[in-house]
Prior knowledge:
Helix content: under 10%
Shape: globular
Structural class: mainly beta
CATH class: Mainly Beta
Strand content: 35-45%
Strand order of the largest sheet: 1-8-3-6
Number of helices: 0
CATH topology: Jelly Rolls
Number of strands: 8
Amino acid sequence: MAQLYGNFSAKTVTETVVEVIPGSWTALPTTALIGRQVLEVWNKGENKVYLSFDSAATLKQRIAIGSGEVRIFPIQDNLVLYGRSQGGGSRTIIVEYR
């Protein structure tokens, strides 16, 4: 279980660049860091990036992060986070902590 309340300190950090495209959901990252505790998604592109744990969801039902924004999820490697852009591709930086 993720331990974010005072006693978690990362021993490993992995950064991955993923190009999120419009029209389909992309796993963020493509392959999860085994044993991760925290996942950060940085939107480095110009288009919004929509995030979901459901790869069949519609964009209207999902949260979005704008250009330069970050979203942090305290999730382990058994959960898949998906990203999708609208209006063009968007480069994202995925940072995983274990």
